[in-house]
Write a structure and sequence with these properties.
This protein is mainly α. The chain is built from 18 helices and no strands. Among the domains are: 1-140, Serine Threonine Protein Phosphatase 5, Tetratricopeptide repeat (Alpha Horseshoe); 294-352, Serine Threonine Protein Phosphatase 5, Tetratricopeptide repeat (Alpha Horseshoe), CATH 1.25.40. Helix content is 75%, strand content 0%. Helix 2 (35-48) packs antiparallel against helix 3 (55-71) and helix 11 runs antiparallel to helix 12. It starts with 21 loop residues before the first helix and ends with a helix.
Length: 352
Protein backbone atom coordinates (compact mmCIF):
# COMPACT_ATOMS: atom_id res chain seq x y z
CA UNK A 1 0.00 0.00 0.00
CA UNK A 2 1.09 3.56 -0.58
CA UNK A 3 1.91 5.99 2.19
CA UNK A 4 -0.95 7.98 3.70
CA UNK A 5 1.27 11.00 4.33
CA UNK A 6 0.26 14.36 2.94
CA UNK A 7 2.03 15.32 -0.24
CA UNK A 8 4.42 18.27 -0.06
CA UNK A 9 3.42 21.31 -2.08
CA UNK A 10 4.51 20.91 -5.66
CA UNK A 11 5.29 23.86 -7.91
CA UNK A 12 4.20 24.09 -11.50
CA UNK A 13 7.12 23.32 -13.78
CA UNK A 14 6.04 25.31 -16.82
CA UNK A 15 9.26 26.80 -18.18
CA UNK A 16 8.91 29.56 -20.74
CA UNK A 17 11.38 31.41 -22.90
CA UNK A 18 13.28 34.05 -20.98
CA UNK A 19 12.99 37.76 -21.65
CA UNK A 20 12.89 41.10 -19.89
CA UNK A 21 9.23 40.91 -18.93
CA UNK A 22 6.78 38.36 -17.58
CA UNK A 23 8.70 35.27 -18.70
CA UNK A 24 11.95 36.43 -17.14
CA UNK A 25 10.44 37.03 -13.70
CA UNK A 26 8.29 33.89 -13.86
CA UNK A 27 11.33 31.72 -14.60
CA UNK A 28 13.31 33.50 -11.88
CA UNK A 29 10.53 32.67 -9.42
CA UNK A 30 10.62 29.01 -10.39
CA UNK A 31 14.39 28.85 -9.97
CA UNK A 32 14.52 30.73 -6.66
CA UNK A 33 14.83 28.51 -3.57
CA UNK A 34 13.71 30.90 -0.86
CA UNK A 35 9.89 31.29 -0.68
CA UNK A 36 10.19 35.04 -0.05
CA UNK A 37 12.37 35.41 -3.14
CA UNK A 38 9.83 33.40 -5.10
CA UNK A 39 7.06 35.74 -3.94
CA UNK A 40 9.13 38.74 -5.01
CA UNK A 41 9.71 37.40 -8.53
CA UNK A 42 6.18 36.09 -9.04
CA UNK A 43 4.80 39.47 -7.95
CA UNK A 44 6.95 41.20 -10.58
CA UNK A 45 5.78 38.66 -13.16
CA UNK A 46 2.16 39.49 -12.31
CA UNK A 47 2.86 43.19 -12.79
CA UNK A 48 4.57 42.48 -16.12
CA UNK A 49 1.84 40.17 -17.40
CA UNK A 50 0.38 41.14 -20.78
CA UNK A 51 -2.61 39.56 -22.57
CA UNK A 52 -0.16 38.13 -25.10
CA UNK A 53 1.27 35.99 -22.28
CA UNK A 54 -2.08 34.20 -22.05
CA UNK A 55 -4.48 33.65 -19.16
CA UNK A 56 -3.09 30.16 -18.53
CA UNK A 57 0.22 31.75 -17.59
CA UNK A 58 -1.56 34.18 -15.29
CA UNK A 59 -3.25 31.22 -13.60
CA UNK A 60 0.16 29.58 -13.23
CA UNK A 61 1.89 32.60 -11.71
CA UNK A 62 -0.86 33.23 -9.15
CA UNK A 63 -0.85 29.54 -8.23
CA UNK A 64 2.91 29.50 -7.77
CA UNK A 65 2.85 32.65 -5.67
CA UNK A 66 0.06 31.12 -3.61
CA UNK A 67 2.19 28.04 -2.98
CA UNK A 68 5.07 30.29 -1.95
CA UNK A 69 2.86 32.15 0.53
CA UNK A 70 1.69 28.83 1.98
CA UNK A 71 5.29 27.73 2.54
CA UNK A 72 5.79 30.65 4.95
CA UNK A 73 2.35 30.06 6.53
CA UNK A 74 0.88 33.22 5.04
CA UNK A 75 -2.31 31.28 4.50
CA UNK A 76 -4.76 34.10 3.78
CA UNK A 77 -2.50 35.48 1.06
CA UNK A 78 -2.13 31.97 -0.34
CA UNK A 79 -5.91 31.47 -0.43
CA UNK A 80 -6.37 34.84 -2.13
CA UNK A 81 -3.88 33.89 -4.85
CA UNK A 82 -5.38 30.45 -5.45
CA UNK A 83 -8.85 31.97 -5.68
CA UNK A 84 -7.62 34.62 -8.12
CA UNK A 85 -5.86 31.95 -10.18
CA UNK A 86 -9.11 30.03 -10.57
CA UNK A 87 -10.80 33.07 -12.12
CA UNK A 88 -8.55 32.49 -15.14
CA UNK A 89 -9.57 28.86 -15.57
CA UNK A 90 -10.07 25.63 -13.67
CA UNK A 91 -6.96 23.69 -12.73
CA UNK A 92 -6.66 20.52 -10.65
CA UNK A 93 -3.32 21.51 -9.08
CA UNK A 94 -4.67 24.90 -8.00
CA UNK A 95 -7.69 23.30 -6.35
CA UNK A 96 -5.42 20.74 -4.68
CA UNK A 97 -3.04 23.35 -3.29
CA UNK A 98 -5.90 25.48 -2.00
CA UNK A 99 -7.31 22.37 -0.32
CA UNK A 100 -3.98 21.89 1.46
CA UNK A 101 -4.26 25.38 2.94
CA UNK A 102 -7.86 24.76 4.01
CA UNK A 103 -6.64 21.55 5.64
CA UNK A 104 -3.99 23.48 7.58
CA UNK A 105 -6.75 25.82 8.78
CA UNK A 106 -8.92 22.83 9.74
CA UNK A 107 -11.57 23.91 7.22
CA UNK A 108 -12.39 20.32 6.33
CA UNK A 109 -15.55 21.01 4.32
CA UNK A 110 -13.81 23.59 2.11
CA UNK A 111 -10.85 21.27 1.62
CA UNK A 112 -13.05 18.36 0.55
CA UNK A 113 -14.97 20.59 -1.89
CA UNK A 114 -11.72 21.66 -3.54
CA UNK A 115 -10.44 18.09 -3.66
CA UNK A 116 -13.70 17.04 -5.31
CA UNK A 117 -13.06 19.66 -8.00
CA UNK A 118 -9.42 18.61 -8.40
CA UNK A 119 -10.34 14.94 -8.80
CA UNK A 120 -13.16 15.75 -11.22
CA UNK A 121 -10.67 17.60 -13.42
CA UNK A 122 -7.92 14.99 -12.98
CA UNK A 123 -9.20 11.59 -11.80
CA UNK A 124 -5.65 10.19 -11.54
CA UNK A 125 -4.32 12.92 -9.22
CA UNK A 126 -3.20 10.45 -6.58
CA UNK A 127 -2.16 13.00 -3.96
CA UNK A 128 -5.65 14.52 -4.03
CA UNK A 129 -7.15 11.06 -3.47
CA UNK A 130 -4.85 10.49 -0.49
CA UNK A 131 -5.62 13.84 1.11
CA UNK A 132 -9.37 13.42 0.60
CA UNK A 133 -9.12 9.91 2.03
CA UNK A 134 -7.38 11.30 5.11
CA UNK A 135 -10.09 13.93 5.52
CA UNK A 136 -12.88 11.38 5.14
CA UNK A 137 -11.14 9.22 7.73
CA UNK A 138 -10.83 12.20 10.06
CA UNK A 139 -14.57 12.88 9.79
CA UNK A 140 -15.45 9.23 10.39
CA UNK A 141 -16.41 8.38 6.81
CA UNK A 142 -14.28 5.24 6.70
CA UNK A 143 -16.01 3.79 3.63
CA UNK A 144 -15.27 6.84 1.47
CA UNK A 145 -11.75 7.03 2.89
CA UNK A 146 -11.00 3.44 1.94
CA UNK A 147 -12.41 4.01 -1.55
CA UNK A 148 -10.00 6.90 -2.09
CA UNK A 149 -7.05 4.98 -0.64
CA UNK A 150 -7.83 2.02 -2.90
CA UNK A 151 -7.94 4.20 -6.03
CA UNK A 152 -4.78 6.04 -4.99
CA UNK A 153 -3.06 2.68 -4.56
CA UNK A 154 -4.10 1.67 -8.10
CA UNK A 155 -2.80 4.97 -9.47
CA UNK A 156 0.54 4.41 -7.75
CA UNK A 157 0.84 0.84 -9.02
CA UNK A 158 -0.05 1.85 -12.58
CA UNK A 159 2.82 4.35 -12.70
CA UNK A 160 5.47 1.64 -13.19
CA UNK A 161 4.04 -0.01 -16.35
CA UNK A 162 3.08 3.42 -17.68
CA UNK A 163 6.67 4.68 -17.39
CA UNK A 164 7.89 1.50 -19.07
CA UNK A 165 5.40 2.14 -21.87
CA UNK A 166 6.78 5.63 -22.40
CA UNK A 167 10.30 4.22 -22.77
CA UNK A 168 9.13 1.59 -25.26
CA UNK A 169 7.17 4.19 -27.22
CA UNK A 170 10.12 6.58 -27.42
CA UNK A 171 12.27 3.70 -28.72
CA UNK A 172 9.60 2.85 -31.34
CA UNK A 173 8.87 -0.53 -29.73
CA UNK A 174 5.15 -0.03 -30.16
CA UNK A 175 3.97 -3.59 -29.42
CA UNK A 176 5.74 -3.53 -26.07
CA UNK A 177 4.45 0.00 -25.45
CA UNK A 178 0.87 -1.16 -26.04
CA UNK A 179 1.39 -4.07 -23.66
CA UNK A 180 2.75 -1.79 -20.93
CA UNK A 181 0.03 0.85 -21.34
CA UNK A 182 -2.57 -1.94 -21.26
CA UNK A 183 -1.13 -3.15 -17.95
CA UNK A 184 -1.36 0.40 -16.61
CA UNK A 185 -5.01 0.66 -17.72
CA UNK A 186 -5.85 -2.75 -16.25
CA UNK A 187 -4.51 -1.59 -12.89
CA UNK A 188 -6.23 1.80 -13.13
CA UNK A 189 -9.01 2.02 -15.76
CA UNK A 190 -9.16 5.80 -15.20
CA UNK A 191 -5.56 6.38 -16.29
CA UNK A 192 -6.38 8.87 -19.04
CA UNK A 193 -2.74 9.46 -19.97
CA UNK A 194 -2.12 5.74 -20.46
CA UNK A 195 -5.22 5.47 -22.67
CA UNK A 196 -4.08 8.43 -24.75
CA UNK A 197 -0.56 7.04 -25.12
CA UNK A 198 -1.85 3.58 -26.03
CA UNK A 199 -4.00 5.24 -28.68
CA UNK A 200 -0.90 6.91 -30.13
CA UNK A 201 0.90 3.55 -30.15
CA UNK A 202 -2.04 1.97 -31.98
CA UNK A 203 -1.79 4.73 -34.60
CA UNK A 204 1.87 3.87 -35.11
CA UNK A 205 0.79 0.27 -35.69
CA UNK A 206 -1.84 1.39 -38.20
CA UNK A 207 -4.81 0.43 -36.03
CA UNK A 208 -6.86 3.63 -36.09
CA UNK A 209 -10.04 1.94 -34.82
CA UNK A 210 -8.44 0.85 -31.56
CA UNK A 211 -6.78 4.25 -31.28
CA UNK A 212 -10.15 5.95 -31.74
CA UNK A 213 -11.65 3.80 -28.99
CA UNK A 214 -8.84 4.73 -26.59
CA UNK A 215 -9.12 8.46 -27.28
CA UNK A 216 -12.91 8.32 -26.86
CA UNK A 217 -12.55 6.41 -23.59
CA UNK A 218 -10.06 9.00 -22.32
CA UNK A 219 -12.56 11.77 -23.13
CA UNK A 220 -15.36 9.89 -21.33
CA UNK A 221 -13.21 9.81 -18.20
CA UNK A 222 -11.83 13.34 -18.52
CA UNK A 223 -13.90 15.70 -20.66
CA UNK A 224 -11.08 18.28 -20.53
CA UNK A 225 -8.35 16.03 -22.00
CA UNK A 226 -7.11 18.26 -24.82
CA UNK A 227 -4.62 15.70 -26.17
CA UNK A 228 -7.34 13.08 -26.61
CA UNK A 229 -9.63 15.54 -28.43
CA UNK A 230 -6.76 16.54 -30.71
CA UNK A 231 -5.80 12.95 -31.50
CA UNK A 232 -9.38 11.80 -32.04
CA UNK A 233 -10.09 14.81 -34.22
CA UNK A 234 -7.05 13.99 -36.34
CA UNK A 235 -8.33 10.44 -36.91
CA UNK A 236 -11.78 11.75 -37.83
CA UNK A 237 -10.18 14.16 -40.31
CA UNK A 238 -8.07 11.41 -41.90
CA UNK A 239 -11.28 9.36 -42.31
CA UNK A 240 -12.99 12.40 -43.91
CA UNK A 241 -15.41 12.75 -41.01
CA UNK A 242 -14.88 16.48 -41.06
CA UNK A 243 -17.81 17.54 -38.89
CA UNK A 244 -16.77 15.21 -36.08
CA UNK A 245 -13.20 16.42 -36.40
CA UNK A 246 -14.34 20.04 -36.29
CA UNK A 247 -16.38 19.36 -33.15
CA UNK A 248 -13.30 17.96 -31.39
CA UNK A 249 -11.06 20.85 -32.44
CA UNK A 250 -13.68 23.41 -31.43
CA UNK A 251 -13.94 21.69 -28.05
CA UNK A 252 -10.20 22.27 -27.62
CA UNK A 253 -10.73 25.99 -28.27
CA UNK A 254 -13.42 26.02 -25.58
CA UNK A 255 -10.88 24.59 -23.15
CA UNK A 256 -7.93 26.63 -24.46
CA UNK A 257 -8.97 29.59 -26.66
CA UNK A 258 -5.33 30.21 -27.61
CA UNK A 259 -4.39 26.71 -28.75
CA UNK A 260 -2.24 27.07 -31.90
CA UNK A 261 -2.68 23.35 -32.65
CA UNK A 262 -6.48 23.59 -32.70
CA UNK A 263 -6.44 26.63 -35.00
CA UNK A 264 -3.94 24.87 -37.27
CA UNK A 265 -6.08 21.73 -37.47
CA UNK A 266 -9.24 23.69 -38.26
CA UNK A 267 -7.26 25.54 -40.92
CA UNK A 268 -6.28 22.19 -42.42
CA UNK A 269 -9.92 21.03 -42.40
CA UNK A 270 -10.92 24.13 -44.34
CA UNK A 271 -8.07 23.64 -46.78
CA UNK A 272 -9.16 20.04 -47.35
CA UNK A 273 -12.56 21.45 -48.34
CA UNK A 274 -10.87 24.02 -50.64
CA UNK A 275 -12.12 26.84 -48.42
CA UNK A 276 -8.89 28.80 -48.60
CA UNK A 277 -10.28 32.05 -47.23
CA UNK A 278 -11.35 30.35 -44.00
CA UNK A 279 -8.11 28.39 -43.77
CA UNK A 280 -6.18 31.67 -43.95
CA UNK A 281 -8.00 32.98 -40.90
CA UNK A 282 -7.29 29.89 -38.81
CA UNK A 283 -3.65 29.55 -39.88
CA UNK A 284 -3.17 33.22 -38.98
CA UNK A 285 -4.62 32.61 -35.52
CA UNK A 286 -2.34 29.61 -35.09
CA UNK A 287 0.68 31.73 -36.01
CA UNK A 288 -0.49 34.50 -33.67
CA UNK A 289 -0.53 32.15 -30.68
CA UNK A 290 2.75 30.40 -31.48
CA UNK A 291 5.04 33.41 -31.83
CA UNK A 292 7.41 32.07 -29.18
CA UNK A 293 7.73 28.76 -31.01
CA UNK A 294 6.90 29.35 -34.68
CA UNK A 295 6.06 26.35 -36.85
CA UNK A 296 7.31 26.21 -40.44
CA UNK A 297 4.45 23.90 -41.46
CA UNK A 298 1.82 26.47 -40.48
CA UNK A 299 3.56 29.19 -42.50
CA UNK A 300 3.84 26.80 -45.45
CA UNK A 301 0.13 25.95 -45.45
CA UNK A 302 -0.91 29.57 -44.99
CA UNK A 303 1.37 30.38 -47.92
CA UNK A 304 -0.35 27.65 -49.92
CA UNK A 305 -3.75 29.19 -49.13
CA UNK A 306 -2.48 32.56 -50.35
CA UNK A 307 -1.14 30.81 -53.45
CA UNK A 308 -4.50 29.18 -54.24
CA UNK A 309 -6.23 32.55 -53.78
CA UNK A 310 -3.80 34.21 -56.21
CA UNK A 311 -2.14 36.40 -53.57
CA UNK A 312 1.35 35.45 -54.72
CA UNK A 313 3.36 38.10 -52.89
CA UNK A 314 1.95 37.08 -49.50
CA UNK A 315 2.47 33.44 -50.45
CA UNK A 316 6.17 34.07 -51.13
CA UNK A 317 6.52 35.81 -47.76
CA UNK A 318 5.10 32.80 -45.93
CA UNK A 319 7.13 30.28 -47.94
CA UNK A 320 10.25 32.32 -47.14
CA UNK A 321 9.42 32.37 -43.43
CA UNK A 322 8.85 28.61 -43.47
CA UNK A 323 12.28 28.11 -45.06
CA UNK A 324 13.91 30.44 -42.55
CA UNK A 325 12.45 28.42 -39.66
CA UNK A 326 13.25 25.08 -41.29
CA UNK A 327 15.68 25.12 -44.24
CA UNK A 328 14.80 21.45 -44.88
CA UNK A 329 11.20 22.30 -45.82
CA UNK A 330 11.39 21.18 -49.46
CA UNK A 331 7.72 21.94 -50.18
CA UNK A 332 8.20 25.56 -49.17
CA UNK A 333 11.26 25.78 -51.45
CA UNK A 334 9.37 24.25 -54.35
CA UNK A 335 6.32 26.48 -54.04
CA UNK A 336 8.42 29.59 -53.47
CA UNK A 337 10.19 28.99 -56.79
CA UNK A 338 6.89 28.18 -58.50
CA UNK A 339 5.24 31.32 -57.11
CA UNK A 340 8.18 33.56 -58.00
CA UNK A 341 8.01 32.19 -61.53
CA UNK A 342 4.34 33.17 -61.78
CA UNK A 343 5.12 36.66 -60.41
CA UNK A 344 7.96 37.12 -62.93
CA UNK A 345 5.77 36.02 -65.85
CA UNK A 346 3.02 38.38 -64.72
CA UNK A 347 5.47 41.29 -64.46
CA UNK A 348 6.82 40.50 -67.94
CA UNK A 349 3.34 40.48 -69.45
CA UNK A 350 2.57 43.83 -67.81
CA UNK A 351 5.58 45.37 -69.59
CA UNK A 352 4.11 44.42 -72.92
Amino acid sequence: MISRKLIIYSFFTFIFFTGCGFNYYFNAGLKARNPKSKIKYFTKAILKWHPDNGEKNKLNVYTNRGISFSLIDSNESALADFTTALTFGEDSSTYYNRALVYYKQNKIKNAIEDLNSAIKLNPILGEARILRGNLFKKTGNIKRANEDFKIADKISKSDSPFNAGIKFYNNELYDKAIESFTNAVNINPNNVTALNMRGLAYIQKGNSNKALNDFSKAIEIDSSCIDAYNNRGTIYASNKKYEKALNDFNRILELDPKSPEAYYNIGMLNQMKNDYKSSLLYFSESIKYSQKKPNDITYYYRGYSYYMLGNYKEAVKDFSTAIKINPANSLAFSYKEKTNSIINKTDTLKKY
